[in-house]
Design brief:
The complex is a heterodimer of chains A (290) and B (300). By secondary structure, chain A is mainly α. Chain A has 13 helices and no strands. Helices cover 74% and strands 0% of the residues of chain A. Chain B has two domains: 62 residues, no CATH class; 210 residues, MetI-like fold, CATH 1.10.3720.10.
Chain lengths: 290, 300
Amino acid sequence: MQEWLERHIPKMVLAPSFVAILIFVYGFIGWTAWVSLTRSRLLPKYEIEGLIQYDRLFASPRWDTAMGNLFIFGTLFIVIAIVLGLLIAILLDQKIRTEGVLRTIYLYPMALSMIVTGTAWKWIMNPGLGIEAMVRSWGFENFTFDWVIDPDKAIYAVVIAAVWQASGFVMALFLAGLRSVDGEIIKAAQVDGIPTYRIYSAIILPSMAPIFLSAFIVLAHLAIKSFDLVIALTGGGPGYSTDLPATYMYAMAFSRGDIGQAASSAMVMMAVVFAIVVPYLYSELRAKHD
Amino acid sequence: MTDITLSPAHAQDQGRNWGRIALRWLLFIALGIFALFYLMPLFVMVTTSLKSLEEIRTGSLVAFPREVTFEAWRTAWSGACTGIQCEGLRPYFWNSVMLAVPAVLISTFLGAVNGYVIAQWRFKGANLIFSLMLFGCFIPFQVVLLPMAVLLGWMGIAGTIPGLIFVHVIYGIGFTTLFFRNYYVTIPQELVKAAKVDGAGFFRIFWSIFLPLSLPIIVVTVIWQFTQIWNDFLFGVSFSQAGTQPVTVALNNIVNSTTGVKEYNVDMAAAIIAALPTLIVYAVAGKYFIRGLTAGSVKG
């Protein structure tokens, strides 16, 4: 008995968490998938009706806007954050004495809630009293920067705030990568008289391919889950011009009382995440087994 | 650098040195501009929160306050309106504390035990379980929002702080397990074997060998979980009701409440108050914060 207990204790300790994950992650995904196939409105129904919710979803102009925004926002956010993060990391990697302080400054936004970030940038980009008013007071009377209230440009305002928040983190990833590049190879290249930019483009950056991948995964993941930033910065507006899938899902679930739409949009979001994360996780886990 | 040689190459060297100095200055200027970009919002938030509304209307966004007033801070803390209630952020700040502390402790403890089992007591299927848990870290939470709302209703804890604690613990386990597992996997298994030979059991080994070794990863995990839970908005806004909202939700309600005059100074003071706990953690233990961020992504 004692021995049996001793042998099975590890499993029994892990079991509650495992069961919790099975139910609350996988079971719940199953529930959402099931409900996304029903006619649920204000209350969940459980009779399967086929793909009507998905038909409605893809026919909805609001969802169309949300997916289009995700594409614009995601692409710009990922590209700019990676370029900026990499640039700062390279600049910081030149044996700067104040590196510690600078790094702290570049990275602190990551400690903030997206709601705080959104609130701050909403005020800064506010046309009446923010940057626009400031530049105008310098004598540039025609200067306009009203992206947050312009339906065509508001999504770019979200990009600015998101890049501000996350680029320092990308910087930290790349800085760690730059530090792990073999110094001997770089020295040898310098001795051979290879110009610095060539050392970066031909030796250092290619060796950091896995970090580009991690940065991409993390940022893509952040982009798809982006919810709080939009809520705080634009509230999804003007109109629904800055809706993202996450805000669409929330609106359907909690203010429109359209559970079927909420479930089907959540399933599409998960499909997008899986399309990006699964190949990555798979290769990671395989690499570990090798 | 300091050796002076009189040769034809000397003049050229000097030219190259000037170039290097200019480049160095350019580097510092570039880094300085980036630093300003990151600091500007914080600076604007702090100065705006210390101005009167009158000064905000007439002055410049980036100007220092002519007259420092803490009125906006007082209002943000105890008078600002979140919808119909006008009690400021204070009750919601304490909601967040009462929510974050137990949720962080429970999820960290579970992560430690799970990580210990997965890394050191490998059994058939342990890796599969770990993969399944890891996978749970990556799902967009929208996909569990609806069933969780239904379940919390059944359990009778919908809209309560215990309900939110429950949600944060459940969806925090994946990450905390990942952190501890990756840490314990670097500890040689001979340690457990030797301890078993000496007659120590599962819990004894965990308690007297592994826990004492775990301080750094406990700090990393606690900071990670605290930042996640304190800054959470999605669960907070979905599973709370008037009175039990966490601070992020209350902040958003204050800022976006449409009644009355827009008090930007109060908004900024409220935003700083909501951000202060995680900012302090970052200032005090930034090293561990960064380690958590990178452990979650690079090692994942």
